[in-house]
Structure formats: structure tokens, C-alpha cells
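Support request, priority: normal
Reporter: lab tech (M.K.)
Component: structure prediction queue

Hi team, I submitted a job for Photosystem II complex extrinsic protein PsbU from Woronichinia naegeliana WA131 yesterday, and the status page still shows it as pending. I've pasted the exact input below so you can check whether something in the sequence is tripping the parser. The sequence length should be 116 residues. Please let me know if I need to resubmit or if it's stuck on your end.
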Amino acid sequence: MGQAPAQAFNLPTSATVLADVRVNAVDAKLSTEFGKKIDLNNSDIRDFRNLRGFYPNLASKIIKNAPYEKVDEVLDLPGLSEKQKSRLQANLDKFTVTATSSELTEGDDRINPNVY
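Reply from support: The job had stalled in the queue. We restarted it manually and it finished. Here are the results:
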């Protein structure tokens, strides 16, 4: 029993296929900075859990005072303690601001997104 010699095949080249690709609004937003940072206008309270001292109280203040036009506006929230301002200042690079998206904010459930 010997081995059969290798054979070469000439395969036809594939044709270009044009397709109507649809991307929903949330997927489109996830491909922006929103998918990499916490969006102060669209993220829900769970997104703040990894930031020490934010969850749930400071995160709630941030969400309740949205929308924001610039990230540093979060430093002007009413009723912030000096410790909260310091935490915000130290984490500004982790935030972004994009236009409010109804797909992410509709139902006003950013505080309680009903994920149990």
C-alpha cells in the first residue's frame, strides 16, 4: 500500500457578492467609543460596577442628571462630595458622551435595567 500522489485542482475564483447589510442602532453605537468607554448618556448603572466608589450612588447621580454634552460636565453635578468629585476627576478618561439613543434609554430603566 503506497501513498497516492498529490493532485492539484484549479478551483474557480469566487464571485463578489453584494449584500444589503443591516446593522441595528445599538450594534452601530457599540462599534464607536461607546463600546470601549462608559457613555454618560446611554450606559446603565451596571456599567459603573467596576469603578470603585461609583456603584450605586454616584452612578445614580450621573444617570439622573444626563444628558451631557461634554464629559467634564459630570464634575458640575449638584450635591457632589469632594470625594465623589475626586473619583470622577480620576476616571474622566473612562467616560465618553454620545448622542442619547432611545434604544438604550427608552423606558427610563438605566437605573434598574431589569437584569436579575
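The beta strands are 38-39, 95-96. The chain has four helices and two strands. Let us know if anything else looks off. Ticket resolved.
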